Amino acid sequence: QAVVTQEPSLTVSPGGTVTLTCGSSTGVVTSDHWPYWFQQKPGQAPRTLIYDTNNKYSWTPARFSGSLLGGKAALTLSGALPEDEADYYCLLSYPAAGVFGGGTKLTVL
Amino acid sequence: QLLLQESGPGLVKPSETLSLTCTVSGDSIGRDNNCWGWTRQSPGKGLEWIASIYSTIGTTYYNPSLASRLTISVDTSKNQFSLQLTSVTATDTAVYYCARHRGATGVDIWGQGTMVTVSS
Predict the structure, then answer these.
(1) Cα gap B1→A58, rounded to integer Å
(2) Candidate from B14-18, B26-30, B41-45, B49-53 with smallest mean pLDDT
(3) CB distance from B66 to chain A under 8 Å?
(4) Is there a contact between B107 and A98 if contact means CB atoms under 8 Å apart?
(5) Which residues does chain A have within 8 Å of residue B112's beta carbon, measured at their own beta carbons?
(6) Which residues of chain A have a CB within 8 Å of the CB of B52?
(7) Are B72 and B38 in contact, with CB atoms under 8 Å apart?
(8) Mean pLDDT of chain B
(9) 3-state class of A96 per DSSP?
(10) B105, B112, B115: best mutation site toward chain A, by most A Cβ within 10 Å?
(11) Residue B31 DSSP symbol
């Protein structure tokens, strides 16, 4: 089974910009992996932010964007707010199953 | 508004079968051949994709590492879908989330989750 990798932790200053990445042990991440991004705050269920690489939901703040960058899927947060402090997970699709990354703990400080 | 609610026993004994049900409200589970699935999260750990099922054609997808113990099913008459995991051990202790999927693997709308502990 493929392994999906994310930075274990990142820190961003309030108002700053940070990019989280999502890599695959099988090689380059492409749009055919249908990358998803999720935000999870302590004690809460995850919330889906981005689907199919770069598509947003009505509830996704405009400061979040998804892309493919350097062979990986990427989630960019521009203009970080204290409320963005959370765990972020990506999900990649492989034949017949999905695989989550290990998650990135984002600190806004 | 689409809502999903997990239900099932909070405590399961080792070697027994874990059975969970997800009740969907706000939409018909069989509409447009939607896909529905389960994800879990062990205490203090990350998310693990478990399984999914297309509601009308019944096609299923399983995490290969769990497939031999898993069954996912759907009951359109009750607007519910279910998960069974056999021969559980302490490593199956987790919060189990049901969700609507976008396609077979993409997790779209989440339930609140239900904690299941495997212990004697």
Answers:
(1) 13
(2) B26-30
(3) no
(4) yes
(5) 45
(6) 98
(7) yes
(8) 96
(9) coil
(10) B105
(11) G
Closest-approach residue (CA) in chain B for A46: B110
| Residue B83, CA atoms < 13 Å, CB-side half-sphere | 33
Q: Kindly give, in sequence order, each residue whose CB lies less than 8 Å from that of residue B49, ignoring residues fewer than 6 positions away.
A: A91, A97, A98, A99, A100, B37, B39, B63, B105, B107
The span from the CA of A80 to the CA of B46, in Å, is 23
DSSP string of B40-94? EE-TTS-EEEEEEEETTT--EEE-TTTGGGEEEEEETTTTEEEEEE-S--GGG-E
Q: Does B62 touch chain A (CB under 8 A)?
A: yes
Angle at A92 between CA A89 and CA A96, to 5 degrees: 135
Q: Write down the pLDDT at residue B33.
A: 80
By Cβ distance, the residue of B52, B103, B112 closest to A34 is B103
pLDDT in tens, A1-46: 899 999 999 999 999 999 999 999 999 999 999 999 999 999 999 9
The owner of tokens 């997790």 is B107
Distance CA B111, CA A67 (A): 27
Q: How far away is chain B from the Cα of A68, in angstroms, using its nearest Cα?
A: 17
